[in-house]
Design brief:
Blueprint: E1 2-6, H1 10-23, E2 28-32, H2 38-45, E3 49-53, H3 61-71, E4 76-81, H4 87-90, E5 97-100, H5 105-113, H6 124-131, H7 136-147, H8 152-159, H9 163-171, H10 178-187, H11 192-197
Parallel strand pairs: 1-2, 1-3, 3-4, 4-5
Length: 201
């Protein structure tokens, strides 16, 4: 996920970048306090989400959002503002969320979990890592298996495969197909997305 933050107060931009690093650690997040930088940054990075202040000097966040949506109609806009009066106008751009300042972490997390246009959490880097043989998914399979106190023999019995297959999954020499991956998540009692992303506690 690629997220753009635009607010004319640099401190707010920095606070949001810090919060996002905890909420979505795998996301690429770039912030600017200069409204003139918004469109050039968008052209360069093709963001999935734009967190946009509304009341900015020179141009409103709503007008900037219209410009970005003209380039990418499925862009998720999350407005942040200190003025509730902007709510009605903001929704004319079909925003994913309208958040009143001060922005708390749970507000931001909820907005990202309920985007109008869902964004895949599988990043180009994750795909590249798997293709290069670094076996990130395999390491997660092994970690969840070990956390549940399960041996490879026990997992292979539950999956109906050989222990060699389990070993190949965990070493990255082979990836389970989609149906097998879903069954694996069920056996390990983990959400498939978390098994893919490795975000778990």
């Amino acid at each position: 996920m690629k997220i753009l933050i635009a607010d004319d107060h640099r401190l707010i931009v920095d606070d949001l970048l810090d919060e996002l690093s905890r909420i979505v650690p795998d996301a690429m997040c770039i912030g600017t306090s200069d409204p003139e930088h918004v469109v050039p940054l968008f052209d360069e990075y093709d963001f999935d989400v734009a967190i946009m202040d509304i009341d900015m000097p020179g141009i409103s966040g709503i007008e900037l959002a219209r410009q970005l949506l003209a380039k990418k109609p499925r862009l998720n806009i999350i407005y942040i503002t200190g003025f509730a009066d902007f709510a009605l106008e903001s929704y004319k751009t079909y925003a994913s969320a309208f958040l009143l300042k001060p922005i708390r972490g749970e507000m931001l997390r909820d907005a990202l979990n309920n985007l109008r246009h869902p964004v895949s959490k599988i990043t180009d880097d994750m795909i590249e890592q798997e293709m290069s043989g670094n076996a990130l998914i395999g390491k997660r399979i092994a970690k969840f298996r070990e956390e549940r106190g399960m041996t490879r023999d026990e997992l292979k019995d539950k999956m109906g495969v050989t222990v060699q297959t389990i070993s190949r999954w965990e070493s990255g020499k082979r990836l389970p197909d989609v149906v097998t991956f879903m069954k694996l998540a069920q056996v390990l009692a983990v959400d498939p997305g978390k098994l893919m992303e490795g975000e778990h506690k």
